[in-house]
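A reminder from the course coordinator: this example appears on the midterm review sheet, so study it carefully.

Given structure:
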């Protein structure tokens, strides 16, 4: 197996006023919270959005692990729909001391480059800031953070920075090179 260097950048917002929202795209794009925890739907989103950029961490999760994760208080999935078709998603996860991580964010490849990503990220970050309003017992959000890496889409870092996220850490590590799994095995050429 070949190893490749992968750079991971961690970014944050430390106040709701840090958010610089993108304009909503033209057309019928809606963002809706997936309120019923559904391992099938969440795995579909994960594989469809991350399949060409080597998201593999959760592909081996059994159903029970997905269900347990999605049932945690404050874990939310917000889905962008373009004319009724899932176009991408953002997953939020509360952490200690009022931090909320944008754990996953992205678009299905066919929907990239259509100005949906900036809008979805803006909406997701805003929902991270008001997460405690929907989940009694969670502390008020004091920080929203995420990470991206050199394997992610070429416009990811610029989108995060345009939305007001500031870099706070950079790491370079060797990782095993894997082929893009696609939303199903063999969907993308190696």
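Designed residues:
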């Amino acid at each position: 197996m070949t190893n490749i260097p992968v750079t991971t950048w961690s970014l944050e917002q430390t106040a709701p006023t840090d958010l610089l929202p993108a304009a909503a795209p033209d057309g019928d794009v809606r963002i809706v919270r997936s309120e019923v925890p559904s391992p099938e739907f969440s795995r579909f989103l994960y594989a469809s959005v991350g399949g060409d950029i080597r998201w593999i961490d959760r592909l081996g999760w059994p159903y029970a692990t997905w269900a347990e994760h999605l049932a945690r208080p404050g874990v939310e999935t917000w889905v962008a729909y373009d004319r009724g078709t899932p176009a991408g998603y953002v997953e939020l996860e509360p952490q200690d001391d009022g931090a909320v991580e944008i754990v996953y964010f992205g678009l299905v490849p066919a929907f990239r480059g259509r100005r949906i990503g900036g809008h979805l990220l803006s909406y997701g970050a805003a929902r991270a800031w008001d997460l405690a309003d929907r989940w009694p017992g969670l502390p008020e959000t004091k920080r929203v953070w995420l990470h991206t890496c050199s394997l992610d889409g070429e416009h990811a870092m610029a989108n995060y920075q345009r939305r007001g996220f500031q870099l706070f850490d950079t790491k370079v590590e060797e990782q095993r090179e894997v082929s893009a799994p696609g939303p199903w095995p063999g969907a993308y050429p190696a």
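The mean pLDDT is 93. The first strand starts at residue 3 and ends at 13.
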